[in-house]
Design goal:
The structure is a homodimer. By secondary structure, chain A is of the alpha/beta class. Chain A contains nine helices and 14 strands. The first copy, chain A, is globular and about 65 Å long. In chain A, the strands form three sheets. Chain A has a six-stranded mixed sheet with strand order 3-2-1-4-7-6, sandwiched between helices. A five-stranded mixed sheet of chain A has the order 12-11-10-13-14, sandwiched between helices. At the A-B interface, β12, α3, α5 and α6 of A face β12, α3, α6 and α7 of B.
């Protein structure tokens, strides 16, 4: 007996700190579930139970294929899906089958990308890029994927030619939550003008970043700077320094920012202020598009 | 009856995370004690008990003066010793009496320094600078005080003319202990060549810092870079970026680095490699010299 609500397949984005799964009918999600069973808190034997905790309500009698991207394919993941080396087409990556106990599941994990020089790696963003290129065939330009580890990828003729990772999101979190600056950032709100000014400061003179960071604390101590201003200033200083380093990527290019509302907004603001032609794409939509493409390729080849 | 081992006075350096006290005979320490009762873990009422836990063995019948510098004078400290504004002579600061319950103690706290534009503050380092200038009268140049929050101070005619704070030490600790880089820094050792190369990288192109940080992780994943190399590289990248921003301070100046063996060494190496004339002074010796000077001034005025 077939469970009439069973999905055609399951899409999974497995990050370092979060696990997200979608029940899929063709290319469309019909249900979503998530947990904080990220890769960082699991050992190898923990991946299948963590996925089952989310997707068991979706399973019927017939086996269902789950297509995974992200950290589940790392060396410490469910199964290692070795990095593909750039330049390479992210839409042509071959998923690696993962060992599964439960007969109701078939699991495949997409590999990430690596770059030998300068050394760099990504896992998960390649699937968002594949999804973007599936929806925008023949698109050439630069894709920016803001996050804990923001990626910039140069895309041409369907290939990721090169890419570069920045620790900007992680620096913002560490400085805002664990450094002396946390005392000055404790509060809500945002200050657009302070953000724009800070981006300009470090984009023009990136060497000043290390000095400007402590000034956030000092200006609070001496002038009582509001937390909204301090937070926008910290974000702007870090993103301005990133834009200064990523200038070879975005200068004279068309840019697509793939993110969610929170992560993409400051990048869109900062790039627009530089007069860069920039468009936005939703990260969840892109990862589902990329996983759908990989699932369709797998079905076609079997 | 006088306790024959009682000190003439007590010197105290009160930091954010540590408390250190010395029993003094004139300008010379005869005993030392320390604890992790830094300012960050104390409320206002906690300062006197924290000091007594260290110095009670030194107390006799007659009241003893304790001269304090550092965070005990902050707004959240034992008593607020308002910042003196630069330009000012750090050897001429007036200590503020703190309220004390125990009749065996008299407590004075030295103020820190502030700079209005660009906004900056210091508490504790001004006393090390005063000590250095007591031992090196008529010294003009730039003093670098490495630490969690590294300070650069321009000194002329006995005055601190201007200064600038860098978060370098705190960034190194956060990135090394709490970021994704921690996986690549877990181990012992040091790599002089990697340090020197990293200093050169970010001193020449400071905008690359944000990109180079993640490369530490990627080169470990792809090439198995040793932890000693990764740690030296992180330190070098951060110090190189600091030197790029502090260039107006050290270029064409004579530099004194006041620190301990661990904190001063990378700065001495990096500055020497730039051909800068640099000398080293011991931080403990300087803070005791500065506190001794302040204590002698207090005695002379009473």
């Amino acid at each position: 007996m077939t469970n009439s609500t069973a999905p055609d397949w399951i899409a999974v984005d497995w990050g370092t700190t979060h696990l997200r799964a979608w029940a899929m009918r063709g290319p469309d999600p019909t249900a979503q579930a998530s947990s904080d069973d990220g890769m960082a808190r699991l050992d190898r034997a923990g991946f299948e139970p963590a996925l089952l905790r989310l997707v068991t309500p979706w399973l019927g009698d017939a086996p269902v294929t789950a297509m995974l991207c992200g950290m589940a394919g790392s060396r410490q993941g469910w199964v290692e899906a070795p990095y593909a080396q750039v330049p390479t087409k992210p839409a042509d990556l071959t998923p690696v089958p993962a060992p599964v106990q439960d007969p109701r599941l078939r699991v495949f994990v997409l590999p990430g990308l690596k770059q030998v020089s300068p050394p760099d790696v990504m896992r998960g963003e390649e699937t968002q890029i594949a999804g973007f290129l599936t929806q925008n065939p023949n698109w050439d330009g630069v894709i920016c994927l803001p996050g804990t580890h923001t990626k910039w990828a140069h895309v041409s003729a369907g290939e990721v030619v090169s890419f570069q990772t920045f620790l900007t999101g992680e620096l913002f979190a560490l400085l805002g939550q664990a450094s002396v600056l946390r005392h000055s950032l404790d509060g809500d709100g945002w200050d657009d003008a302070a953000f724009a000014e800070a981006v300009g400061d470090t984009l023009t003179r990136p060497e000043r970043l290390a000095a400007l960071l402590f000034a956030i604390r000092a200006s609070d101590l001496l002038q009582g700077t509001p937390a909204a201003t301090a937070r926008a200033r910290l974000s702007g200083q870090l993103i301005g320094a990133e834009l200064a380093a990523a200038r070879p990527y975005w200068l004279g290019q068309q840019i697509a920012v793939i993110g969610n509302a929170t992560t993409a907004r400051p990048y869109l603001d900062a790039l627009s202020a530089q007069g860069v032609p920039v468009s936005a794409a939703d990260a969840d939509t892109m990862v589902l598009s990329g996983l759908s493409h990989a699932h369709a390729e797998l079905e076609a080849s079997s």
